[in-house]
Amino acid sequence: MVTSQPDGGGPVSRLADTTESTQLGMGAELLAHARDLLPRAPHGELRYLAERLTEALADALRVAESRGRRLRGLA
Which of 13, 23, 45, 68 lies in disulfide reach of 59, CB 3.0 to 4.6 Å? Predict the structure, then answer.
């Protein structure tokens, strides 16, 4: 039987935290890469970078939306 911790640190919450941390870390790495690459990037690399940044932004928005729903549920 799986039980959640009193502080909300159950297995699903920990998985969500790990996923969020991974996604935000990847987004930060992509942003740093973009800042370095953009001033001198060839066209093909710009498309690849834009696609990855779009994915990272979508992940970050999903995290924010999910957290917002959880917070509204506590109110």
Answer: 23
CB 23 within 8 A of CB 63: yes
* Structure tokens, 43: 């066209």
Q: What tens-digit pLDDT sequence spans the chain (75 residues)? A: 344 444 567 888 888 888 888 888 888 888 888 888 888 888 888 888 889 888 888 888 888 888 877 777 776
- Pair of tokens at residue 21: 């941390």
Query: What is the torsional sign of CA 39, 35, 23, 57?
Result: negative
Rounded to whole angstroms, what are the CA distances from 58 to 23, 25, 26, 30?
10, 14, 12, 13
pTM reported for the whole predicted model: 0.58
